[in-house]
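Morning. Coffee machine broken again, so started the prediction first thing and wrote up yesterday's gels while waiting. Chain of 550 residues, entered below exactly as on the submission form.
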Amino acid sequence: MKRQTPPAVATRSTSRAAFRFELRDRVAAGNQLLLCGIVAALFIGGLILGSLTQPGLFAAGAFAIAVGAIAALSVPWSQVPAGWVAAVPILDIFAIAVLRLAEPTSGVGLLWAFPAMWLASLGRWGLVTGCALTTTLYWVVVAFGPYSVFTFSTLLLPLVIIAISSAGYSSSQRFAAQRELLDAQAARLAFARAAAVRQEQLVSEVLDTVDFGVVRLSVGGDIVYENDAVGRFSSAIPGLHAASARTDLLAEDGVTPLDPSDHPLARVRRGETIEDEVVWSRDAEGRLSALSFASRRLIDHRGEDSGAVIVARDVTAEREALRARDDLVASVSHELRTPLTSVLGYLELALDDDLPDRARRHVDTALSSGERLLAIVADILSASRSSRHSVESSVHPREIDVADVVRASALALKPLAEERVIKVSMTGDERVAAYADASRIRQVVDNLLGNAIKFNRDGGAVELAVHAEGDTSVIEVRDTGVGIAEADRAHVFERFYRASEDVAGNGLGLAISAEIVKAHGGQISVESTLGHGSTFVVELPARGPGGRNA
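Came back before lunch.
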């Protein structure tokens, strides 16, 4: 496919050609007027001083040069072939020969340098023509003049004219090469500019079609670009526009008033980088809307700061959906607490009666499981609250033997494993000290072990391992189940996230477990191979805040 020349480049090429034609007109007029002025000054000065020996012949030569000046000014040289402009300097050469005949001792032969240089600027043929014609006429004038004596100066003048013409020719060639280079660079620059303009238009059109706002800030914090979507959000961004409507700004919780100086836009202008910062705004009619802000600093090709880009996204619907979900979970969990409390109360009353040992063990197991269920309901309530410290406030660590906690959990869930012929084994140290809340860690182990059984294959195996590593107590739960895909591993500890839809669950167990472990100052991780099982590792501090052994 033939590449088409952009309109901007074609226009620029046309303007350059017009400039060259105009330059030809100016050069012709300028060169001829300069020579005409010198000859006129010599003629008038000679008349005044009475030094002209043949004033009539001198006047004829001056008249010829004046005719050349009139032609240089009146002829549109840009509209005739370029070679025709040589007629004027050739006429000047013959006119100067006449002046030389009129005044052989006046040195007017030096004026041949002007037309010779002019011809040399027209090209190599002009250089040869000017040098040959000037030298020939000079020697003819000397031979037939009144002083037909060939001296050293007879050879010197032609050599000087040839040297001057050669220098003019070299200069004109260098100028032409530089002009071509500049023209080529100008064409490339014009093409690059046209491409940049098209790219800018394309980017602007794309950004104007998206539903999130994009704001580009300079190093000084001034707005240099914003897409169309920003206009819908401007009322929630103080300082964006001078005429922005006044609104009440609220923090991420939707309740706490937000100072304009703490707004994400103001923070980015101070040089900060933000990620998913949510700001609520209330308009004059009382409607609430939420915007999520993210920013990135921009670095130029020199590695220096060149401003920032802010992306604002309307997350009102998402936040309201999350709030509705949390309200529902909190409501359901709250409704569960009343019947659970009643069940636990009756189980405790049953234990006060005389029961056979077997029945007492069953009731005691049911009471223990009910208490854990009540704790889980409390965790669901905590997970639905906005405070990120809700779990920390319900953890009461002390010195415990974490191995006993794991054994108790394995014993309680053994019937569930036996239903699917899953073998549960325990290895590691007999006693492992930890500084933790036994009931909360039991909740974590129950959840991990329950998942290992739930997501296992019939006839599979689950291995529990407990050991100490320096100041850390480690609990490992390995299974031979379905495993977790790599894309899901980064999200398994998020609330309400479910890696598999085939098994019932609410997606809260691992999230609550991670919060409990984090509240203890520990960490939980997972390694898994899809189709071959998973290994969950819980690390807890073995020592208390005072540094004493647990």
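Residues 237 and 265 are 7 Å apart (CA to CA). Going to sketch it on the whiteboard this afternoon.
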